[in-house]
Amino acid sequence: MERKTRVRFAPSPTGPLHIGGVRTALYNYIFAKQQGGDIILRIEDTDSNRFVPGAEEYINQALKWLGISFDEGVKEGGKYGPYRQSERRGIYREYVDRLLEAGKAYIAFDTPEELEAARQNIPNFQYDSKTRGTMRNSLTMPKEDVDKLIADGAQYVVRFKVEPDREVVVDDLIRGEVKVNSNILDDKVLYKSADALPTYHLANIVDDHLMEITHVIRGEEWLPSAPLHVLLYEAFGWKDTMPRFVHLPLLLKPVGNGKLSKRDGDKLGFPVFLLEWKDPKTGEISSGYREKGYLPEAVVNFLALLGWNPGDDTEMMSIEDLIRKFSFEHCSKSGAKFDYKKGIWFNHEYIGKADNERLAKLLEPTLEANGVKVEEGASGKDNRYSPEYVAKAIELVKGRADLVPDLWTQGDFFFKAPQEYAEKDVKKRWSADTPRIMEELIGVLEGIDDMTSANAEKIVLDWIAEKGYHLGNVMNAFRLAVVGACRGPHMFDITELMPKEEVITRIRRAIEKIPAPEN
Ligand code: GLU
Fold first, then answer.
1. Which of 219, 269, 256 is nearest to 19 (CA)?
2. Of 21, 349, 479, 494, which alpha carbon lies 20 to 30 A from 250's?
3. What secondary structure letter does DSSP report for 399?
4. Cα 256 to averaged position of ligand 1 atoms, centre (Å)
5. Has 161 been annotated as catalytic?
6. Residues 357-370: pLDDT tens digits?
């Protein structure tokens, strides 16, 4: 019988979720949705030494922001729970015992010092079929001694007994058959008595089996563990229901060679985390895509294309498009360069398409930081503006924004009169007769009842033509007075939105403040 597709995202709460992990979660999500399957969030917290407080909640928040939801998990619940490995101790012990009873695992007492000594004495030491006979374990010691040591409270680990000279085949949906000889594998520790917890390998396999996972989609860094996992499935007699493996290509540095790291982000100025993260130990703050002003759909689109392509050169894809088009055949084996500039490009495109009201909400913190309050019904007095005004201003500048805060730098003049005037524009556009012409312009504007863009434009341009003024000079001086520099959207779109009195006040102030050059 066809099994229902079930995938899992299985992060360890050891810190904020790195962008590579985010892509893994995204591919799992896309694949599950495409297959009409389930996606599970499993928290792999068996390594208590690496546990970081707040990391699990961070992971929840970050994926929620991106729009990834789970069918089962710590918060969602589900019939395969608990979904936190630290709450599944009892379950794992039973499976450790099964392997011990079947002779597929053994108990080892070697202390860290003894292991270190072996490493010193034996070149390229690896705990395996060649060396295990020389170590202190249940294969070399009489059963009574083993039992006594355990009864006396000695600490031990359980190791997997890897059979030598076997060809282990990992059948990967991206990489095809990856074959390794079992001789290169060591007898991995599956369980530690010290904290009564399994290691990653055992917990991972047991949970994937019990949770009826059909596809293990994860980063390439886990490929070296896959042969051991295949052997574990075999040892438990679960080969028939072993999940398909999918190891995603590495994310590489934007420049140079090697794996993408947080340092690359710090150096080049892009975040490697979805949300801002404050390190609970050092207090260090790392920037996040959300706080920098990226839209989640842009991040989704950008990440989806790091390691996969739709088979043509389509770039803009919604999550629905991605779910429709995704396939492992179009995933690459080789690493994907983290082209963060492409991420900015995507964000620019998505800001251009985004709803103005939504952008207005996202811009609010930036507005507030600049002393601008958004209030229903406000008229612009005392730096208070209505949501409609903010949305309209955004409509006029959003084509020029890469990140949400750029909406402010591009459109600040809608909210604040210029405090100074760009020097080089003044030099070029403000001549001796400009003040007089601007006075005239005030008169023209005062006479216009309907400030709609096209209407005001016609009246002003007719006046310029009639007087024989230089169109560029007049319009740029006008702009300089209202905006503070020769930048911004169409002048008459600006003056349609801004209250006419404000426009006139600004021209008056410019006449006063900009020293007119001698002719
Ligand atoms: N806990 C592992 C991690 O942190 C999971 C690896 C896997 O998906 O098997 O990435």
1. 219
2. 349
3. G
4. 27
5. no
6. 999 999 999 999 99
